[in-house]
Amino acid sequence: MDWKHWYRELEQDDETWDVSEEVVLRGVVHLDFCGQASEVEAEFIVGADSEEQIQTIEEPTELQKKTWETYMACSSEIHPQVLESIHHYYVDIVEKYRKAYSSWGEDTNEYAPYVERPEQLLDRMQLISILISDSSEKDELYLNFSCSWDREHGLGVHLKQMKIEHIQGAYTLYDLE
């Protein structure tokens, strides 16, 4: 992949950066998640120790590139495992969401139906972003989904060594320092 070319076109915030800030490099990629075509925002968080260093960041770190390339090479094997894990997670939390939607007078089956198979969740969720921090260990990343049962927070899947580490709300899953 021609990383510099991909990142020349990326949107960057027009904010003043303080020392020790992070630069977020973003790009949109088209991925297939278990047969579901998705336009996914790839985000690489690159830390900087000085204002001068911020100005020189043009691409992800070598570790981030390697993580991305490993993920892309293995995604067709990883995604079914992710979907299966999300299904197990969903079965454990669906009752909580059903009670909440019921208390709000909402149709529980519209937002949090009972499902028997992982594939039944595909109509209820969409891969929207992938985040790779530069403080990440090798092959560590986050997959973020929008989902019908938690429309505010979404769903996040933390992968380490391309194995599922943890699943929970997308914005509570990780703490980037």
Quick summary of this structure?
This protein is 33% helix and 30% strand. With 177 residues, the protein is α+β, with helices and mostly antiparallel strands. The protein has a 6-stranded mixed sheet.
How does this structure look, described?
There is one protein chain. The radius of gyration is 18 Å and the shape is elongated. It has a six-stranded mixed beta sheet. By secondary structure, the protein is an alpha+beta fold. β1 (22-33) and β2 form a beta hairpin. The protein has helices spanning 3-8, 51-56, 62-103, 108-111, and strands spanning 22-33, 36-47, 125-133, 140-147, 155-160, 163-168. It has four helices and six strands. The model is unreliable at 8-19 (pLDDT under 50).
List keywords for this structure.
177 residues, alpha+beta, 6 strands, 30% strand
Q: How many E-type strands?
A: 6
Q: Judging from the principal axes of the Cα atoms, what is the shape? A: elongated
Unreliable stretches (pLDDT < 50, length at least 5) are 8-19
Structural class: alpha+beta
Number of helices: 4
SSE order in H/E notation? HEEHHHEEEE
Mean pLDDT: 85
The largest sheet, given as strand count, sense and whether it forms a barrel, is: 6 strands, mixed
- The residue fraction in helices comes out at 25-40%
Q: What is the radius of gyration?
A: 18 Å
Spatial gap, N to C terminus: 28 Å
Share in β-strands: 25-35%
